[in-house]
């Protein structure tokens, strides 16, 4: 259709006394960031409309990472799935294996020993310290402070050493078991854990000074990437992202699991430190730093209050699997990971492997808040705003193949062909 004729038609429909409306010429243009970009730690593509340096429209595209973890899980027994669940995320993996345990324990009505509850809590809080300090390094890097990144990652080594001593591994720990934990903390290890906690207590002041008092960091983060309380609630934000907007949402507080019901954990918001809530990047830094301090206190309380006793519902794995093979029903595990609320859904139908296993990682919830956070901001602030929610793309991406009622299995050749086709389609869209 000729656009001039359309304008003529609209002019004929205009009332005689109505002034002619001049169409405002748009000065905006598209900017694509990703899926591979130095500012992005994992593949994701941002489609931004910008006017000058100002972001006026936000969209993003996932689906660059497919690992089929949930599908593989429905072909494994529950004990094998524990080690698979840990590989959903390399940073916060204890939370996924624990959450899966809780879901299965709910189906099988397994009672976890009290000491195991405390051990689970200690491991979870050690992981929270590790995750938040690692995030602080990433945030410093996005702000251009690589010296701060190297400093934070240096002090992160202490908690990794503790986790290695307690579990045998620095990253994927393999410590959780359905009905408890695989290893106890002995009397010789307790002083080492306490020494690490003192190390972080002494170093907290320096972290606080670097991230909360440095004028350059404050200038880049205060008032940047604001997520209001209203938007945070409407878009279902979770974890530090939600709490930084003044939303007192924390599974450890709202629906305590493990030993948290004995510890009276309270959700931390910026108001506890600053006396006000803005919901900006600076507030998200504040919440994570305060949660490091809170985790230290929780671990100290666990070491003081931890009861004696066994650490497993059933020590013999074949006997445990025989018990789990006969269970039927649905179970949900709900847990506060370092990034926010994690949910695992498991359905058992009296067979060795689950009929269904679905995982909702916190990044699912914290992606949509990117919209209001990025609107009206400068292009240069996009990396730190996106990083301020501590996203994990590998946690988030899923692949579902639907072909009527028939099963369809993609072999390596089919996956390679589809990947090439998608890459070529993306190139065409980007005009490359």
Description:
The structure is a single chain. The chain is mostly helical. The protein has a domain at 69-366: Orthogonal Bundle (Cytochrome-c3 Hydrogenase, chain B), CATH 1.10.645. Helices cover 49% and strands 12% of the residues. It is built from 19 helices and eight strands. The protein has helices at residues 3-13, 69-73, 78-85, 94-108, 114-142, 146-167, 190-213, 215-221, 229-234, 239-243, 251-254, 271-274, 281-305, 317-324, 362-367, 370-374, 382-387, 393-396, 412-430; strands at residues 28-33, 45-51, 54-61, 176-177, 180-181, 328-337, 340-349, 356-360. The strands form three sheets. Strands 1-2-3 form a three-stranded antiparallel β-sheet. A hairpin with a 2-residue loop joins strand 6 (328-337) and strand 7. Helix 3 (78-85) packs antiparallel against helix 4, helix 5 packs antiparallel against helix 13 and helix 7 runs antiparallel to helix 13 (281-305). The two termini are 29 Å apart.
> What topology, given as strand order, has the largest sheet?
1-2-3
State the helicity in percent bands.
Answer: 40-55%
CATH topology of the domain at 69-366: Cytochrome-c3 Hydrogenase, chain B
| Most strands sheet | 3 strands, antiparallel
Note the overall shape. globular
How many separate helices?
A: 19
Kindly state the number of beta strands. 8
Query: Could you tell me the mean pLDDT?
Result: 88
**What's the architecture of the domain at 69-366 in CATH terms?**
Orthogonal Bundle
Radius of gyration: 25 Å
Task: Specify the CATH class of the domain at 69-366.
Answer: Mainly Alpha
Please name the fourth-level CATH homologous superfamily of the domain at 69-366: Cytochrome-c3 Hydrogenase, chain B
């Amino acid at each position: 259709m000729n656009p001039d004729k359309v304008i003529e038609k609209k002019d004929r429909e205009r009332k005689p006394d109505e002034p002619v409306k001049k169409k405002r010429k748009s000065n905006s243009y598209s900017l694509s960031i990703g899926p591979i970009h130095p500012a992005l730690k994992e593949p994701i593509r941002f489609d931004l409309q910008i006017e000058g340096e100002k972001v006026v429209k936000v969209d993003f595209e996932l689906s660059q990472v497919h690992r089929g973890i949930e599908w593989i899980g429905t072909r494994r027994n529950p004990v094998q799935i524990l080690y698979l669940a840990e590989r959903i995320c390399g940073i916060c993996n204890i939370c996924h294996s624990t959450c899966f345990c809780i879901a299965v324990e709910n189906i099988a009505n397994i009672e976890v020993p009290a000491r195991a509850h405390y051990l689970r809590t200690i491991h979870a809080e050690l992981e929270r310290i590790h995750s938040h300090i690692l995030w602080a390094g990433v945030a410093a890097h996005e702000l251009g402070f690589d010296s701060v990144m190297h400093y934070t990652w240096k002090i992160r080594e202490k908690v990794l050493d503790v986790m290695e001593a307690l579990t045998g591994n620095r990253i994927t720990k393999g410590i959780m078991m359905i009905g408890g934990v695989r290893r106890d903390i002995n009397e010789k290890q307790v002083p080492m854990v306490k020494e690490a906690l003192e190390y972080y207590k002494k170093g907290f002041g320096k972290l606080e000074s670097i991230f909360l008092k440095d004028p350059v960091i404050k200038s880049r983060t205060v008032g940047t990437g604001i997520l209001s309380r209203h938007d945070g609630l409407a878009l279902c934000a979770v974890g530090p992202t939600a709490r930084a907007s003044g939303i007192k949402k924390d599974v450890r507080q709202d629906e305590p699991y493990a030993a948290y019901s004995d510890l009276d954990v309270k959700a931390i918001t910026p108001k506890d430190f600053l006396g006000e809530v803005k919901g900006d990047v600076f507030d998200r830094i504040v919440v994570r730093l305060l949660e490091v301090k809170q985790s230290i206190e929780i671990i100290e309380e666990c070491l003081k209050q931890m009861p004696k006793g066994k650490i497993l519902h059933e020590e013999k794995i074949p006997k445990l699997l025989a018990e789990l093979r006969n269970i039927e029903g649905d179970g949900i595990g709900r847990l506060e990971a370092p990034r926010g609320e994690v949910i695992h859904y498991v359905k058992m139908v009296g067979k060795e492997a689950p009929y269904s296993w679905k995982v909702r990682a916190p990044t699912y919830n914290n992606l949509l808040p990117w919209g209001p956070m990025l609107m009206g901001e400068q292009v240069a602030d996009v990396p730190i705003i996106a990083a301020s929610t501590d996203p994990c793309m590998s946690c988030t991406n899923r692949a579902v193949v639907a072909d009527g009622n028939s099963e369809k299995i993609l072999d390596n050749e089919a996956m390679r062909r589809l990947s090439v086709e998608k890459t070529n389609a993306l190139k065409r869209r980007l005009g490359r």
